[in-house]
Fold each of these.
Amino acid sequence: MIEINLQVEANSVSESPPKEARLDRYLSQELSDLSRSRVQQLIEQGKIQLNGKVCTSKKTSVKVGDRISIEIPEAEPLELQPEDIPLDILYEDDSLLIINKPAGLVVHPAPGHQKGTLVNAILAHCPNLPGIGGVQRPGIVHRLDKDTTGAIAIAKTERAHQHLQTQLKAKTARREYLGIVYGAPKTENGTVNLPIGRHPVDRKKMTVVPVEQGGRPAVTHWKVKERLGNYTLMHFQLETGRTHQIRVHSAHVGHPIVSDPIYSSGRSVGVNLPGQALHAWKLKVQHPVSGEWIEVTAPPPQIFTTLLEVLRRRVAISL
């Protein structure tokens, strides 16, 4: 069983209603490994205490100075089967595994994707990984969308998992992406600081949602890397890690990711992409044991570089 103890600090509830916030919303924001539904489940199971008393309602409010204790039960035994799926390994030791994920590979099991996931591949490569958070995602520290390629870290020990999650929460881990977007931004760099939440109508989509309506803070830094006529190669750096964050923010400011099947209705680019042209290019984390900084660069897939070459040729012809 994992025990977590924390005290509500002033800046933790500053973006919620004044002076207090709902317990489930606060914890899902503060603890990136716990979704709001998972927090609500723990409340129902009597696993969360507020100021020494068991919480009985997900609507319980917390305020600055409150003490919260959480007991997270050990993960249920995995029923997933290891699968011999090739992994493009960028770094590996006894604590940490970083791979270059290909397009089309779902990170962890979900309805409709019980087999052929990154988790199935990891279980074959590292058969002794623990289950994390009571769900079937052993070792997964963060995720990439199915068709987003690039660097993703996997913790091989419980200590490593907690350490890496702490880095993500503290924003010391560095995640950099390359993306090709429609259009030409008017400036060379900028920041999108807009909360993201579930779309109120289409539940498969995320969108910009005010915090008071359930949105979670999301910050994306961007800069132009190469202008390609009516397209632009962008460099993105994540400060937070919300679902579809770069894709939502890019679409919201009028420059959706090329070939994004959910957030873009842009024209064909003449290259048969498997999904959005978004690649997790660099990942920098502090090693959970040695404390040394590990930085890896994931080479973009061939289809990504092919698209760049096609767009560059078009620009050259137009000159």
Note: The longest helix spans residues 302-318.
Amino acid sequence: MLRLASYNLRKCVGLDRRRDPMRSLDVINSLNADIIALQESDRRLGRRPAALPRKLIAQNSDFVPLDLDETGVSLGWHGNALLLRKGLTPNNIQRLGLPGLEPRGAVIFTVAEMRIVAVHLGLIRRYRLLQMQAITTALAKLPKCPTIIIGDFNEWSRSRGMSPLQDDFTVHAPGLSFHSGRPVAALDRIAISHDIQLKKAGVLQSSLAKQASDHLPIWAELNLPKRNFQLS
């Protein structure tokens, strides 16, 4: 079994308007996940410095960030960052630029024989559909293996807006994750290829999570083919 999570950090600014990276990391640690996809992990202005510092992660968690930074100051790429539990070795890391009015990107990598795609899709559905199509086109060029797409999909509808994924993936919305103060939308989701079994999934609704960001984190426990997941 593998436990994944996704969390839009909102640049570590809580509902109290305070930027508190340690509070965000406390929420991350409480997820007890093996791999966590983060969105809005970097600030928007200037060189996009990390909102969640690497030193803080190293000193206060059992996670190692995926090496995505191209600037020397960011934690992620287009705000997408990945934290892996120590002992997991990532391979074949790719940065995929996505179409749209605003700069967006996806991160693709493998752990053993499993592929993970971390996303933060656009605000407009027409561009989200193009972005999902770009992801599936990129995946089709790679060797076939169990695949997970996880992140902030920014889709308000529970029944529409996922057509580019429907042939190869089952999309799960673990629960209402936005707005954390009064959740009304399942913006954060996980899509799994048909050779992966979802055991259970949910939304972290702790009092700390309700204050640390405008999104609540989602989590999912997955059963993978035994040969496709191993600690290095």
Note: The chain has four helices and twelve strands.
Amino acid sequence: MSLEKLVRLPGTLAFRLTLWYAFIFTLTSLGAFLLFNFLIASGLRERTDQDLLAEVSELSSHLALKRLDVVELDIVQDAESSGVDRMFLRVLSLDGEELVSSDMTSWKNVATNRVALKRLTSGESHVFETLTMPQLPYKVRILYGIIGPGKIVQIGKSLEDDQRFMGAFRERFFIMMATLMVVGGLIGWFMARRALSGIEEVTQTAEEISAGAIERRVPLKARGAEVDRLATTFNSMLDRIHALLHGMREMTDNIAHDLRSPITRIRGVAEMALTSGESMDEYENMAANTIEECDRLLEMIETMLAISELEAGAGNLAMAEVDMAGVVEDACELFQPPAEDKGIAVVVEVPTGALVYGDIQKLQRMVANLLDNAIKYTPPEGTVTVSTDGDESMVFVEVKDTGIGISGEDFANIFERFYRCDPSRSDAGVGLGLSLVMAIARSHGGDVAITSSPGKGTTFTVSLPRKSPF
């Protein structure tokens, strides 16, 4: 690993995840240790207490059958069998006077607990206490119990074995925990690196794309649903960006082509007027042609801006309740003269109740573009039918013509900016009308569908929600 990577390592997500793994593992191990330590210590203490109670019960049985001086021998033998430095027994009177005892050489500083004696005389059967003796390295567990009338036994047992066992347990547990922490840290580092490998590939891909490799994509592998979903989404985003860039290039080429033609005509007219103009009429014609071409250019630019604003959601829509039946009737009335001049019949079928929520000016322009498009590509003696329909949630505006039709291979591109089907390239227009129709429909939460047969006609169906989609 290079020095630069080592310097950046503490700030990486993999390093922080590994620290979290180690921290959680340490807390879990500590909790497990405390639980096991408590359970084992409690079990050992309970076993010691049961042994002491068994001694009391045995002495009580012996005292019931023998005299105290005879029981003294049993007391001494019990202490010696366990080890005089590990256990002692002595019999006390109710006021704490020693009656009989084992060898107390190792237990000189063990006093009589007056509180324990008082509790026994108050009715308790036995009393336990744990003492820490300065001269002894281990604690002592002591039991006071009544073994006969006026007689109390005090039994003390060293907890050396229990404490040694607990010490060995703690030592081995901490060694094992330290080992597991190291192993767990390595495993955590491996798992973190493996889990983040997909993100690293996404980052590398983004860096390569930033460097110019626009065709680069993140390889898809079986690394888990989240990372695979990230890689798939990232690739989809890249495909979308690539398509947008491709579309921008095409649009730029189309704009350059469509701007070049009117500019060339303007220049040609001006050049002719300057080189051969002999009268004021020729200069007036040049000015008129220049204004006409400029208007055409301005209209194209304004349409492109309107489409861009609507697609970006930046267009300020004056939303209100709009009667689409009235919008269709007004548009058909407006286009009736040019349709009659061309010998085309315009049929209007608009029942009432076609209310939507939208911008009336944008919706009027949408219907006008569809009507203009239908009349433009319908031959004389043809028919253009405009109708509205709807259900509880949607209103449908249908514009049907008997024109030249559109081939199926053009359906995917018909709403793209500047796209014009081959049969329509000889007609006037720049290919922005249908793009604006789609932009207006989608800005209102609707859509546009198309059905067509070459030579038989085309039908555009606009669907608009009755209520505001926002």
Note: The first helix runs from residue 3 to 8.
Amino acid sequence: MSDEVDATRIPELQQVVASALAAARAAGASAADADASVQKGLTVTVRMGEVETIEYHRDRGLAVTVYFGHRKGSASTADLRPAAVTQTVNKACAIARHTASDECAGLADAAGMAREFPDLDLDFPWALEPEQAVEIARECEAAGLAVDARLTNSEGASLSTHRGVRVFGNTHGFLAGLPSTSHSLSCALLAQSGADMQRDHWYSLARDATDLMAGPAIGRRAGERAIARLGARRLGTRRAPVLFSPEMARGLHSHFIGAIRGASQYRRASFLLDAAGQQVYPQFLQMQERPRLPRGLASGNFDAEGVATRDRELVRDGVLDGYVLGSYSARKLGLKTTGNAGGVHNLLVSAPGASYDFEGLLARMGEGLYVTELLGQGVNGVTGDYSRGASGFWIEHGAIAYPVHEITIAGNVRDMLRGIVAAGTDVDTRGAIRCGSLVVEGMTIAGE
């Protein structure tokens, strides 16, 4: 096979997938799907002006799932040669013959397969040589260190570029593939004043390298954030409003998505059990899924099962419209797949009538905690209990008063979602969930 990673590889990968499906049929499988991919990338890290790492990434793989009635078996390989493909299929078949039958197992319904494939503008290769990558990362870090003499050390600046081609097919006759890219640039710096040392970072992520934030601007943002944290204090235990920055707010919405996934629902292990049709957010909040946004980081014409993606109002006026389902979890719940096998696609969170710029959010809150970093995984998906280490800034009279650290914020996610009183216009697009800052009323802050 060719060593290139571009759209010209699609016919080769389609042949690999078709061969795997034919082999599965020949082995007696009633249904099968296969996913073949090739990927390559480059990552460069510079620290204190010196090259720390240069890594080339090159990957290929095939994953095969077969069904004998409702018995399922899966196997994978990094070898795409015909003999290896046949061997992988045979292993999947051997596994399936020894597994228990599950009436919900099987391909997604044929009627739901994607049939239209508009160009979503996801492929922007970056012909980047290591020397160029080093120079961009070096310039990024240098700009950050130049912000203030108290920026005495660095965890480095890293540039990464990745391109992949994926083809998915199944025995319904579905066979489609696409190339895609992602590029990122980040910088993490350390500030020191006496015995006080603080760290912070910034990054940019995009499909097209021309959409990345300029390297020097990323470095300066990282430097400014680190300097701003010097002199951080601990807080006494209290109850107060909490303002989550966009990056932290995304995590709160992620807990919500985890609770409405099909697996959480059919396992009866969710703090939002049977919540479809219920008020889960304040009335002003809307959440829309838009899978076909051009250049979207989570865009796609079909999900991990070949099911066509579609626009959806997931939360309307604070009310949950339904769950996030693949075909298996949908069958377990007696519902239909929502085209979310493999995850959500570009969730857009908005709050018409309750949106403010950053200064407006501070004024709206008056006094409280502005969280810019969270630590730990203290979230119980069954009960919704939430307790995480945090750092950020204390707000007084609608303005930042001083940095804080070594504190814990606690509450219950369900109450936190309902307790949102305002949202920011500072929408962060660097992920599958696009949202701005959030103000949550009445959280417990544990400190000294």
Note: Residues 7-228 form a domain with the PmbA/TldD fold fold (CATH 3.30.2290.10).
